[in-house]
């Protein structure tokens, strides 16, 4: 089979019950597919009316077709029987035989099979009586079953990407005296089949905050420079404290090996270190940019001269809640994982100060600034999901459309 593009849609109930992290971990670690996009949706009635028509066309057992359509109508609409927000998380995957892999091997087929070897077996529920009546049905995740349905459903997610998807800060109800914050969290680069992003989502879910935005980003050098500019400023301001003592020792060691014809007194060393302040700060800053982007940089940061290295993938998520920014930063722990509390995210998943698993904005102002840089703000003219799907569906016109 050739490469296919397909999707997993995590249901509102799975989001509400904080099953999202476990589902993401399962898909990433078991599917051998490339995650190429992510977006939040609150599907409107027009979207869901068309979605139900695609289900009608599927070649599945009438019992499960009926159960799926009833589920969409009862549980996915803005006015639903559960009385909850109809936030859904849309994940886009690409790979060989992706439709079959995701549907049958990872998510699991629609059935009353309750064994936990698939996502639906673990996180879904179904009560079916002997007379063929489905009393209760929660699929946990929705996905397509065949190439034709897949194309038609992907077309809908592209068509309604801007009207029914994006940043969902206005869909959660809070008491009138409460002032919720939106925190930006960026999961630092992870590799294919790495379950850690899902595990971290699971830890953050314990705060009770609501996920209202998500985007997969291949961070550019320019974006990294802008996001981490305050860090470079901090390096400059605290150069004497953070870098100077160690740099002096390294210089002494290096110069002593050269048998220089003069005494390395304090005055000389201070002058040498002062001359090296700017390149030292830039070099340390470049390490961050290189790690976040996968681009090789030489000398001073120069966007034009950056060479593409190993591809990196980062998750950007928005969490909304009361005191969300300070609470999430406390949950992350100290910048140095070795100094972080044992119950913190960085203690579990960080490696060192550079590779410390997660970045989180430290203020409302910085959250807004960083969101605008990575394109996870409120105003959109297009989005990556729409563009990726349209490229794929335009190249697969052989499948009939509804």
TrEMBL record:
PROSITE patterns: NDPK, NDPK_LIKE
Record-linked SUPFAM superfamilies: Nucleoside diphosphate kinase, NDK
Alphabetized InterPro entries for the sequence: NDK-like_dom, NDK-like_dom_sf, Nucleoside_diP_kinase_AS
Keyword annotations: ATP-binding, Kinase, Nucleotide-binding, Transferase
Keyword Mitochondrion among UniProt keywords: no
Region forming the signal peptide: none
Enzyme class: transferase
A molecular-function term among this protein's GO annotations: nucleoside diphosphate kinase activity
Gene3D superfamilies membership: Nucleoside diphosphate kinase-like domain (3.30.70.141)
Residues covered by the Nucleoside diphosphate kinase-like domain: 180-384
The protein, known as: Nucleoside diphosphate kinase
Swiss-Prot/TrEMBL cofactor(s): Mg(2+)
Pfam families: NDK (PF00334)
Transferase listed as a keyword: yes
Coiled coil: none
Enzyme nomenclature, EC number: 2.7.4.6
Stated family: Belongs to the NDK family.
Gene name of the encoded protein: ndk
Catalyzed reactions: a 2'-deoxyribonucleoside 5'-diphosphate + ATP = a 2'-deoxyribonucleoside 5'-triphosphate + ADP
């Amino acid at each position: 089979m050739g490469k296919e593009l397909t999707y997993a849609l995590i249901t509102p109930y799975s989001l509400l019950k904080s099953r999202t992290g476990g589902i993401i971990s399962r898909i990433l670690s078991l599917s051998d597919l490339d995650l190429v996009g992510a977006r939040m949706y609150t599907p409107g009635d027009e979207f869901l009316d068309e979605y139900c028509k695609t289900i009608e066309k599927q070649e599945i057992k009438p019992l499960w077709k009926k159960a799926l359509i009833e589920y969409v109508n009862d549980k996915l609409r803005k006015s639903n029987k559960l009385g909850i927000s109809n936030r859904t998380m849309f994940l886009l995957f690409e790979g060989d035989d992706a439709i079959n892999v995701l549907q049958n091997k990872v998510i699991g087929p629609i059935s009353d099979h309750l064994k936990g070897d698939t996502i639906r077996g673990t996180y879904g529920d179904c009560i079916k009586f002997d007379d063929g009546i489905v009393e209760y049905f929660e699929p946990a995740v929705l996905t397509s079953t065949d190439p034709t349905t897949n194309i038609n459903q992907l077309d809908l997610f592209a068509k309604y990407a801007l009207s029914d998807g994006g940043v969902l800060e206005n869909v959660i109800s809070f008491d009138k005296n409460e002032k919720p914050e939106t925190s930006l969290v960026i999961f630092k680069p992870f590799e294919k089949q790495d379950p850690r992003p899902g595990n971290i989502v699971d830890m953050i879910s314990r705060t009770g905050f609501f996920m209202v935005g998500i985007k997969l980003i291949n961070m550019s050098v320019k974006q990294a420079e802008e996001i981490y500019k305050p860090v470079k400023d901090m390096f400059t301001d605290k150069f004497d404290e953070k870098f100077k003592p160690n740099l002096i020792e390294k210089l002494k060691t290096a110069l002593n090996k050269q048998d220089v014809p003069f005494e390395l007194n304090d005055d000389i060393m201070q002058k040498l270190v002062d001359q090296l302040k700017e390149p030292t700060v830039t070099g340390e800053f470049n390490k961050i940019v290189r790690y976040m982007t996968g681009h090789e940089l030489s000398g001073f940061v120069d966007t034009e001269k950056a060479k593409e290295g190993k591809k990196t993938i980062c998750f950007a998520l928005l969490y909304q809640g009361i005191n969300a920014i300070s609470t999430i930063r406390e949950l992350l722990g100290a910048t140095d994982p070795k100094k972080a509390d044992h119950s913190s995210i960085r203690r579990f998943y960080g490696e060192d100060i550079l590779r410390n698993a997660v970045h989180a904005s430290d203020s409302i102002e910085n959250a807004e600034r960083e969101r605008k840089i990575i394109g996870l703000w409120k105003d959109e003219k297009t989005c990556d999901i729409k563009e990726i799907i349209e490229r794929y569906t335009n190249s697969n016109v052989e499948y009939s459309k509804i």
